[in-house]
Amino acid sequence: MSQYTAPLKDLRFTLKHLANLEEIASWPGCEDATTDLVDAVLDEAAKFASNVLAPLNRAGDQTWPTVTNGEVTTVTGWKEAYRQFTQAGWTGLVLDPEYGGQGLPQTVACAVQEMWDAANMAFGLCPMLSQTAAEAIFLKGTKEQKSLFLPRLVSGEWTGTMNLTEPQAGSDLAAVRTRAVLSDDGDYRLSGQKIFITYGEHDLSSNIIHLVLARTPEAPEGVKGISLFIVPKFILNDKGEPGARNDVYCVSLEHKLGIHGSPTAVLSYGDQGGAVGYLVGEENRGLEYMFIMMNRARHAVGIEGYGIAERAYQRALNFARERVQGRAVGAASSERSPIIRHPDVQRMLLDMRSRIEAMRALSLYTAAAADRASHHPDPTERTRGQSWVDMLIPVVKGWSSEVGNEIAALALQVHGGMGFIEETGAAQHYRDARITTIYEGTTGIQAADLVGRKLLRDGGETAAVVINVMRAELVQICESSAIDVVEIADAVSELVDRLSEASEALLERATNDPRAPFAASFSYLMLWGIAAGGWQMARAAEAAQRCLETGDGDNEFYRSKLLSCLYYARQVVPHGEAHARAVLAPELSSQEIDELVV
């Protein structure tokens, strides 16, 4: 059975040369992120992922959590792993030191999260959601709410959830029906049902803090009438300790295609009079607040996409080295070769590797922009950082999850018939990856967000800024680098020009037919991903070449990185051209589309 090995060399390279961690460490609140400290954090995370979480991944796939009388029991080994996880301080990595966190940059946290997801995504979902819940309370909660809930969310003693989806609503949050009625004691009583609640019930922590979207009786219709509430599993007593059981119960657990070890709960609120809830911020602004969690969670799902892809790639690579079958082209007639010698297997492995590295680079670059938005001393730079985050989040989430699925499928293909057999483990990655294109808004929703909120809303201004920065950096790379690096930058530059052309075309079409840009939005998102990923690979190639010239470190790694970037430019970038052509092709009319599909 293949073991997981954290890609520490590439993570360190990306953090240093592409995410510019040294600059981040110079900003207020990030001073602790020294090279030595970050190296130590990455080393310890790698050990925990490989030695504690990865061995549980298979068990979590084969033996599912169970529910009895509303109480969920997780898979054997989960509780002990979670105890070790919290004792090691992983739950508070990026959270505020005032509440017990370590306050490290988001960029470091994203590098660490990849290891959790690659080793055991079903486990990693729980602390990820707790961190996003803590962030929402930190930014929008009252002083009392922060003091009551944050220290124990940060420590991992309590865990957090997001409660959005309802049976009749799905992704249409305007249709949310859960009700919240103000009681005489000043709190609210919630009633309704929520579905697809990841870790909505479990036995890992002594309390579960649900962040719940609901409507008050006088709320306006639609998304403008949604409020956000803190609803703990156990109501806190006068000492802030878990007391009486709240009126929220797990009705059932979903039976899913993948991530079996993660309990996905159907929660019922108010069957015995109403679940006690505490309003976060102001009434009717709940969706705005929930998007604090949502944006961070969307980035996290993108990381899940390439994290599982990395694990699937490692399994396929090891299998290809060990599996002897057939004779490689050019080998002696009497020789039987490991399949890694066959050109098409090499193609699949190179394709997987180069795209994983591109996704990782774009994700950590986006995380660095988030740190800029939170910590840079210059307000103008903070605003700039946030605009980049807003622009790139749907790309990181949508592109990385789609490509993660493709890579998990390729990894299964490398195994041949054995990949279709559960015992090899390749099928689990294929199944686990599938949820990432659905979590926190499907790829279609990410594409619609990219076109509607990020391109059309400001007339393409932010998109043009990002594209122009990409162009300028690629031009600079072309002027100063070795021949292979120039080839990479040239290829990506052409695709960035096509991205610009596609953006302008969608803006023009929107003036005539508001549906037209959304009909092309998926290809537009994928074009963004391949182009932005290529931009990062060109930057990586330049950095690797520079390190080779200066003798800075591991020459074998840098040569390998250059080859991976070159493969991306020659074999992946052309797929971006196909997406560009799809965006720019004359679209069918709304009437013609309706005739075909309605």
Please count the beta strands (DSSP E, at least 2 residues each).
12
Helix/strand/pairing category: alpha+beta
Largest sheet, strands/sense/barrel: 8 strands, mixed
User: What is the first-to-last residue Cα distance?
Assistant: 47 Å
Question: How would you briefly describe this protein structure?
Answer:
By secondary structure, the protein is of the alpha+beta class. The chain has helices at 8-18, 21-24, 35-62, 78-87, 106-140, 143-155, 286-322, 343-375, 379-414, 426-433, 443-456, 461-480, 483-510, 516-519, 521-550, 555-584, 590-597, and strands spanning 66-68, 71-73, 158-163, 179-182, 188-198, 207-214, 227-232, 234-236, 242-245, 248-253, 264-269, 275-279. The mean pLDDT is 95.
What is the secondary structure topology, with strand pairs?
Blueprint: H1 8-18, H2 21-24, H3 35-62, E1 66-68, E2 71-73, H4 78-87, H5 106-140, H6 143-155, E3 158-163, E4 179-182, E5 188-198, E6 207-214, E7 227-232, E8 234-236, E9 242-245, E10 248-253, E11 264-269, E12 275-279, H7 286-322, H8 343-375, H9 379-414, H10 426-433, H11 443-456, H12 461-480, H13 483-510, H14 516-519, H15 521-550, H16 555-584, H17 590-597
Parallel strand pairs: 3-6
Antiparallel strand pairs: 1-2, 4-5, 5-11, 5-12, 6-7, 7-12, 8-9, 10-11
